[in-house]
Amino acid sequence: MIQRAFIGSLIILSSCFLFSCSKDKPAASTPPVTGGPGEVVGGTYSSDDLLVFKQMAIYGSALRIINKWPKKVAYYIVDTQYDYLTQEVDAVLKEINSLLDTNLVLTRTNVRSESNVQIFFTDRNTYLMAEPDAAPTLYNSTYGGLSYLRQQEGTLTSGSVFVDMERAKDNIPVQRYLVHHEIMHSLGFRGHATLTGIYTVLFYYTLMPYILNYTPFDKRMIQLLYNPLIKEGMGEEQVDKIVKAL
Ligand SMILES: [Zn+2]
Questions:
Q1: pTM for this prediction
Q2: Ligand 1 midpoint to CA 227 (Å)
Q3: What is the distance in A from the centroid of ligand 1 to the CA of 176?
Q4: 163 Cα–ligand 1 center, Å
Q5: How many angstroms separate the alpha carbon of residue 148 from the centre of ligand 1?
Q6: 70 C-alpha to center of ligand 1: Å?
Q7: Superfamily name with CATH number, domain 10-19+34-245
Q8: pLDDT tens for the 246 residues of the chain, in order
Q9: Terminus of the chain with fewer CB atoms < 10 Å: N or C?
Q10: Centroid of ligand 1 to alpha carbon of 185 (angstroms)
């Protein structure tokens, strides 16, 4: 739920500006090879894994700290007229729940006041009327989505997810991509992976919409963020130490 009481807390944003793929991009029928994680040397995560994790979970945060939900998060779909997107959200929440066991429990509620994250499938103006603080980060683009979160000392408190249905109209693959991309952001991944060869829905935007599901690498990153040893508010040094010991 979005409460004015959170006004003093730091607001974090994740803005996604998705552009049409230019003609030198691979054909839609040729999805990118899911890049395997780099070689593991004496532990669960390679140095590339760790770098990408920090790009997604720390470097995108203004304070460069881990942002996580405490134990559970409830989503509310504001715009329920798209049955296939409601089903997509339910499938995404179910998939993430199966990855995270009870470290984080995601639910979908039909009671707005009980929700932590509101999901909007609408146009920019309607979304900004509900979430006016997001305006500075919502730029014009061919397609677009946004995950807007509030946090206190790394603990996520409330937020919203936006899929621009006006711009992605009639393009269901893009809509599906945006649902996966923005919900993954809403877990606390404020940045994007940029390392060549490792593909995630939070990888470079122009892969959109070739990746329509979480890749094995995405799933490892989600599990790492919600590993109980990774605590909200942790900085890079602490995360380095923990991940290298896993
Ligand atoms: Zn993004």
A1: 0.85
A2: 22
A3: 14
A4: 11
A5: 11
A6: 22
A7: Collagenase (Catalytic Domain) (3.40.390.10)
A8: 333 333 334 445 454 444 322 222 333 334 444 444 444 444 789 999 999 999 999 998 889 999 999 999 999 999 999 999 999 999 999 999 999 988 999 999 999 999 999 999 999 999 999 999 998 888 766 678 899 999 999 999 999 999 999 999 989 999 999 999 999 999 999 998 887 778 888 877 667 778 889 999 999 999 999 999 999 999 999 999 999 998
A9: C
A10: 7
**In the structure encoding, which two tokens stand for residue 79, read together?**
């715009």
CA of 188 to the centre of ligand 1 (A): 11
